[in-house]
Amino acid sequence: MWLPWVLAGLLGAVVLGLAWRIRTLSRLQARGDQSLAEARQSLQTMSLTAEWYAAQFEAMQQARFEPVLVVAADRSVTAMNPAARALFPPPADIGQSLIAVSRSAELDALVAHCLAGGADLDRQLLIGRSQQPYRARAALATSPGAGEQYRGVVLWLQDLSELQRLGRARRDFVANISHELRTPITSIRLLVDTLRGTAPVDAAARDELLEKISIETEALAQLAQELLDLAQIESGQTLVRMVDVAVADLVSGVTDRFVPQAERKHQTIAVDVPTGLVALADEAQVQRALGNLLHNAIKFTPDGGRIWVKACRLDVDVMIEVGDTGRGIPPDDLPRVFERFFRGDRARAGGGGTGLGLAIAKHVVEAHGGRIWVESEGRAGQGAVFRFTLPAGDSSR
């Protein structure tokens, strides 16, 4: 009789053991499912973070104007921004070796030096088909603890041609300024020594010497004004206060000041400005620009030449013109006459100049929302014609 009870007890124990085992397995599975879910969530977060950093890096590459390349440990190119693709056009492409892309053994050597842990990671070299000067900067990129497999180099190339051109322009500018200062100062010293000399000087000779001193003084004043204007432009301190200005008054304020210079060279200045013509302008600044144009016209027009200043209404603008019968401007110089520090054939032929007057005039006109241009056939006697526009003002006031 006791056997059924024993069997029942054993069966119950087995059932209870199975139930406990099933419950334990269920708990472990639940914990495993939770751990797996947490691992998946962590992996997804890491993946999104990696994608975010990759997107930032890609955006920074695309936004840079300078060429940027990413080079792997085997010195193959893994990424190029648009500027790099422009510098190294097809068949250069991602996946090729750096030397195949750049055709530069020096650049390849710089990357190899960087991968080897070298310290000199900034060099100047000639790159590209046109062999332009570039500064190449290399930065080693590694993944800590991942071994050599994830080593690479980020290359940044900076075009130095424009910097070198500006450097040459500034050196030329300093040389020009030194010459422009030395010439009138020397002349004034000699003229003053003559006046102070022991030899008697009659009234006519004295007046002639004083006139020459006056001319040289005006040249120094013009130079000082151009330097001051340039300093204000570069510092951003030039403010444009545009108000309605009578163009006739604006022009006469400049031409009256330059008439004595023109008379010394027996030149005539003709003015043709309609009454009632009004421009929206900063009078002092526009007179500065017009004065630079008129100064050049007098300087580059021979004795007895003719100079004119005209103005007219063009739709919503006012156009002012300054022309002369001087040497003219060679066609090759026309695209560059408004460049800062540029001195073309007209300057080399005589008359000096710092190469700042036209650049300052261009800045003033463009600050008013206008445009300035020049026309010339480059032939002696045909001269040059400079024109610029200003917004038209309210003529009813």
Summarize the SSE layout with pairings.
Blueprint: H1 2-63, E1 68-72, E2 77-80, H2 82-87, H3 98-102, H4 105-115, E3 122-127, E4 132-141, E5 152-159, H5 161-196, H6 203-235, E6 243-246, H7 247-264, E7 268-272, E8 278-281, H8 283-299, E9 306-314, E10 317-324, H9 345-348, H10 357-367, E11 372-376, E12 384-391
Parallel strand pairs: 7-9
Antiparallel strand pairs: 1-2, 1-5, 3-4, 4-5, 6-8, 9-10, 10-12, 11-12
Helix pairs in contact: 5-6, 7-8, 8-10
Defining key terms:
397 residues; alpha+beta; Beta-Lactamase; Heat Shock Protein 90; 2 domains; five-stranded antiparallel sheet; five-stranded mixed sheet; 10 helices; elongated; disordered N terminus
Describe this structure in words.
The protein is of the alpha+beta class. The chain has 2 domains: 61-159, Beta-Lactamase (2-Layer Sandwich); 165-391, Heat Shock Protein 90. The chain contains 10 helices and 12 strands. It has helices at residues 2-63, 82-87, 98-102, 105-115, 161-196, 203-235, 247-264, 283-299, 345-348, 357-367; strands spanning 68-72, 77-80, 122-127, 132-141, 152-159, 243-246, 268-272, 278-281, 306-314, 317-324, 372-376, 384-391. The strands form 3 sheets. Strands 2-1-5-4-3 form a 5-stranded antiparallel sheet. A hairpin with a 7-residue loop joins strand 11 (372-376) and strand 12. The termini are far apart. Mean pLDDT is 80; it is low at 1-11 and 346-351.
